[in-house]
Amino acid sequence: MSTELLIAVIITLIGASTPILIAALGELVVEKSGVLNLGVEGMMLIGAVVAFAVTFATGNHWLAILCAAIAGSASSMIFAFLTLTLSANQVATGLALTIFGTGFSALFGQAYTGKPIELFRSVFPAELATHPVWRLVFGHSPLVYFSLIMVVAVWFFLKKTRTGLILRAVGENDLSAHSIGYSVVLTRYAAVAFGGAMAGIAGSCFPLLLTPQWAERLTAGRGWIALALVVFAAWRPFRLLAGAYLFGLVMTIELYTKASGSTGFLPSEFWAALPYIATIVVLVLISLRRSGQSAAPACLGKPFMPAQ
Amino acid sequence: MENTRPNRLELIGITKQFPGVLANDNVSFAVKPGEIHALLGENGAGKSTLVKMIYGIMQPNAGEIRWNGETVVVPNPKAARKLGIGMVFQHFSLFEALTVLENIALGMDAKIPARELEARIRDVMRTYGLLLDPHRTVATLSVGERQRIEIVRALLLNPKLLIMDEPTSVLTPQEVEQLFTVLRQLASEGCSILYISHKLHEIKALCDTATILRGGKKVDTCDPRIETSRSMAEKMIGSGLKDIVKPEGRRFGDAKLVVDTLSTRKSGHFDVPVDRVSFTVRAGEILGIAGVAGNGQNALLDALSGEIHGDDRNAITIDGRGIGHLDTTERRKQGLCAVPEERNGHAAVGDFSLAENSVLTARDRLGMVMLGLINSGAAKTYTGKVIADFAVKALGPGSTAGSLSGGNLQKYIMGREILQKPSVLVVSQPTWGVDAGAAAAIHQALVDLAAAGSAIVVISQDLDELRALCDTLAVINMGRLSAARPVKDISIEEIGLLMGGVHGGEERDAVPA
Question: What's the CATH code, domain B255-509?
C-alpha cells in the first residue's frame, strides 16, 4: 500500500468517524446527567436537512452548522419537555423523536433531492497541505477539528469543572443531588440541549463533509452507532474517540474493498458485516473485563420523582 | 449567665400540614449553644419533618424559627448552611460512583479549588479522628465510613448547629462510640447538636436535653440523665410500656432445628463466611445470636434461609428432616421462614405493593397461588391482617413497600412472616430502626410464636434486646459460633469477651445445654 493510499484511507476514516464522534459526545453528556435520549438519529436528520437547506440558500457553511445546532437543540427540547417536565418514558419519547426527525427531514428535504451543495473543506491555505503528510494535519474540514476539540472539552468539563461534577452527581443519584440543593431538572435540560446541539452538528456533517447531495435518511443509522458507542466507551470521552475511529476504520475498509473490487480471500459480505461483528466483539470484551458493577450512570433513564 | 445568651435555635409554634396528616402541631422548643439536644419520638411522630423545616427542605405552615434570637426564614438547604446549620441524613445523600473528595465538593456551596478543599478535609479529619482516604470511591466504603463523609462534609462548614438524623441505626457499637466522641468534642467547642433517635440508652449516654414528640405534638422537654429509659419510652408511646410477657414455667419440646457443622464459601468482598457452625433450637425456644456486625451474620442467615445452600442435606434438619440441600421456597414449604437484615430490596421489593410482597413469601404456605394464578383476594386479606395486627402505618395492602418508613416496613415484614406461623423462624435485626412501642410488640409476637411451639433464631447486635427476648444465647465471631448457653447464666462481660473472639477452649463444640 502506498503512502498516498494510506493517507487517503486515514482521511476518509476520520471523515466517516466525525459525525459519530460528535453525536456520541453529546449523548455522553446527556447520559451522564441520567437521561437516555434515543432520539439522536432523528436530531441528526433534522440537523442534516437544516444544514443542507441553509448551505443551499446562502452558501455559508458556518451559518449552516450554527442553524443545524439550533435546530437539533430545539428538537431535543421537545424531548426534554416531555420527559423532564412531564416525566414521560424516556425510551418511548426518544424513539418518537427519531421518528419525528426522520419524517421532518424527509418532508423538508423533498425539495432538495438530487440538488448539490459545496462540501465544507479545509479552511487552511492549500499550500500548507500539499505534502501528503501535511494533509493529515491541515487537510480536514473544520468539523473534524471541532470534534477533536470537543473530546478534550467534554473530558475537561466532566472531570475538572464544578458544573461537570454537578452534572455527574445528578446522573448518579438525582434524589441526593436534589436534597443537597441542585436543580436536577435544570441540569438535565441543559445537558439535553447540549446533546441536541451536538446531534444537530453531527447531522450537518453528512451534507457538509460526506455526501454533498440530499437524499432521504442521509445519516444511514449512524445515530444508533453513536448511541452504542457511548456504552462501548463506558461513558469516557477518550475511549469514545478511539471507538469512533475504530468504527470509521471498519467502515472505510468496507468502502475500499467495494471500490477496488478486491475483497482479498474473504467474501465481500464479510467486509459489509464487519462493523456489526466489531460491535459484538467489543461488547463481549467490555462485559468480560467489567464483571459486576456497571459504568453506567446509576440514574440513567429513570424519571426524577422527588418526594413531597 | 446561660439565660443572657440567646438560644442557638428556637422553634415557636411550628405547624406542618400534609394532605390528610398533621405532621407537626404547634411544636416549640429551644436549643442552647453547645447543647446536645435529643429529639425523641416514635416512627411517624414528626421528627424528620420538623428537622427538614429547620434545614429548609420544607416550609412550615405556621410558627417561627429563631436563630440566635432572630426570626429567620429558611427557604432552602443552602440558606440553612449559610446560617451555620449542618445536617447528616439518615439515608446518606452520597454518590456511589464518585470519590470522597467529589462527594464533599458537591455539598459545598462555596467554590473551593480541589487541592485546597482536600487540605481542609484532611485537616478536619485529623482534628476529629475521622479517617478516610479522600480519593476512594464511595462504592468501596463501609456504612460507617460513608457516614464519616457526611459528617466531614457538615463539619467543613463550621456549623453552629449540627442535625443528626438517626445516625447510629447503621453503625457497629465501636463506630457508635467513635461518633459520640466526635459529637462530644464538637459540643465542647460550642456547636449545638440536634440528635434524632429513638434509642433511649444512647440519648441517656449522650444528650443534655431531650424533647419528646408524639403524633406531631411536643409531649415534654426533659433531662435524659435524670429520666429513666422507661419513663422516656412511656412518654414517647403515650402509655405504659409493656414488658415482654413470657408464659410461666415454659418447657422446651424436642429439638426442632438442628444445625450440624454448617459452613459457607466466601463470596463477596466484605463477606465473612460461616465456619463449621452447630447449634440446636428446641420447640418453644428462642436462640439469640449476638456479635459485632460483619462477623458472618449475613452468611449465617443466608445459609439458614436457603439463599445459600449446599449439597449436605443433613447440615440443617427440621424435626429430623434434612433440608440443607433445599432452596428458600422449598424450606418455606418445610416450615422455615426467614427475615433478612436489609428490609427494602432484600426482604421486600420497594416498587411492589404490600399485597404483592406478601405473595412473594407466603404464597405456598397460605395457598395464595392456584394453578399459577395469584389469588389476589387472599393476598389482600392476609396483608390487611398483617397491617392491622402489627399496627403498620400504611394506606392499605395496595401501598408500595418503598412508600413505608423503615420502621413500618420492618413491622410489616415481621408480621408477614410471623403470621405464617412457621415452625422455624430465623430473623436478623428484628427491631432495627423500629421505635420502642413497636419493638415491644414485635418482641411479644416472637415470644407468642415460640410459646405456640416454634423454634426461633434471632440474630441481633442489640444485646439488651437479646437478653430480654431470648432463652439461650450464642455469639458469632469471624464466622464461628460459640456454644449456646441459657441467657440467665451468661454475663455481659462474657458476651463481650466472646464478641471480641475470646472463646473458652473446646467448649464451642459442645452441644447446647
Answer: 3.40.50.300
Q: Does the pTM exceed 0.90?
A: no
Instruction: Give the integer Cα–Cα distance in Å for B70 and B172.
Output: 39
Query: Which range, A199-203, B478-482, B490-494, B508-512, has the best average confidence (pLDDT)?
Result: A199-203
Count of domains in chain A?
1
Chain B residue numbers with beta carbons less than 8 Å from the beta carbon of A179 are: 57, 77, 89, 93
The phi, psi pair for B419, rounded to 5°, reads: -70, -10
Highest mean pLDDT among A192-201, B100-109, B359-368: A192-201
- Å from A307 to nearest chain B CA? 10
Contact A184, A197 (CB under 8 A): no
A191 against B460, higher pLDDT = A191
First to last CA, chain B: 61
CB contact under 8 A, A162 and B98: no
* Mean pLDDT score of chain B: 86
Paired residues of B71 in beta bridges: B66
Decide if A179 touches B, using CB distance below 8 A: yes
With an 8 Å Cβ cutoff, are B106 and A308 in contact? no
ipTM over 0.95: no
A119 to each of A134, A205, A208, B114, how far by Cα in Å? 20, 9, 5, 45
Domain ranges of chain B: 2-237, 255-509
Inside any domain, residue A303 = no
Which residues, including other chains, have CB under 8 Å from residue B120's CB and lie 6 or more apart? B112, B156
For chain B, the residues whose C-beta falls within 8 A of a C-beta of chain A are 18, 57, 76-78, 89, 92-98, 102, 105-107, 109, 111, 139
What's the CATH class of domain B2-237?
alpha beta
Using CA atoms, how far apart are residues B513 and B504, in angstroms rounded to an integer?
A: 15
The phi, psi pair for B412, rounded to 5°, reads -60, -45
- pLDDT (tens digit, 9 = 90+) per residue, B234-291? 888 776 666 777 776 778 889 999 999 999 887 655 568 898 999 999 999 999 998 8
Instruction: Establish if A243 belongs to a structural domain.
Output: yes
Q: Per residue in B21-39, pLDDT tens?
A: 788 999 999 999 999 999 9
For chain A, positions 244-303, list CB contacts with chain B under 8 A.
293, 297-298
More confident: B509 or A262: A262
Give pLDDT, residue B241.
Answer: 61
Q: Could you tell me which residues come within 8 angstroms of residue B422 by beta carbon, excluding any fewer than 6 positions away? A: B332, B335, B336, B337, B365, B449, B454
